Amino acid sequence: MTARLPDVAREERAAIPLPLDSAGMQGVAAMLRLDGGLLLPARAELAVDLPDPQAKGIHMSRLYRLLDERASGEQLSPPMLASLLQEMLDSHADCGSRVAWLALAFDLPVRRAALVTPGLAGWKTYPARLLAELRDGAIRMQLGVRVEYSSTCPCSAALSRQALRDAFAADFAGAQSVPRDEVLDWISERASLATPHSQRSAADVAVALAPHGERLPLAALIDTAEDALGTPVQTAVKRADEQAFALRNGANLMYVEDAARRLRLALEAGFGACSVRVSHVESLHAHDAVATASTPGWQPLR
């Protein structure tokens, strides 16, 4: 039946004879099969180049079917992506395509234990993005994830400590010594007269992947980033966990610049080439503080 239907992309020529860097689709709903058989919804972008200036268009249904069949049927891995990219090119041999590109975006659910309370845990989702490109026979892949954390300003902490010191000196100005119990009572009543500002913050990190690696190092990437930052946001908490989190923040003051440097150092040690962008959603200012860092020579895939 389809043999009798017109095929404009194949049968007509372009009215304006120009090659295109890419043509494809974005916002494609897909299902991805991860380690352990976990099936997750995702959004995909996929494209090939169109070097033939006379070609009317690519065959988007071919790309769609390849993605649909491979993504839900096979475990997501670098070799699977490399094979899919090659099939995308093979399906467009009649267009002379030499470049295939794919991006997958999804939220990875991870169960996280509370800091202190035994048996207490909750779910966190980590937005992840996987990019892959086959260009003139060479494959490049990058894996990215967003990690949220708490950041306490070092300057604000120093100013708060100074205010606390001045208040203590004023309240006990005439005393040569202060009994221990009076000091403890004073701390209980007045130690929070000035508190440093902290805020929820986000780190978008990406690392280069070897095309022949057997697995996607999603868990390792998330853990490396969170360990470097020290104060990832929590899920389920009780008072003891909240106090433990406050202690972590107090012992882990950081500017946005500190966070970017920590992440680059940790990611390069664990994965090689990387890119980092951090944003501290300020509670003091109406604007955010941002910083970026990347391995020299890093080239993002789109």
Automatic annotation (TrEMBL):
UniProt keywords, alphabetically: Hydrolase
Pathway named in the protein's UniProt entry: Cofactor biosynthesis; 7,8-dihydroneopterin triphosphate biosynthesis; 7,8-dihydroneopterin triphosphate from GTP: step 1/1
Keyword Zinc attached: no
Signal peptide: none
Stored HAMAP family: GTP_cyclohydrol_B (MF_01527_B)
Family: Belongs to the GTP cyclohydrolase IV family.
Protein name: GTP cyclohydrolase FolE2
Organism, scientific name: Herbaspirillum robiniae
Lineage of source species: Bacteria, Pseudomonadati, Pseudomonadota, Betaproteobacteria, Burkholderiales
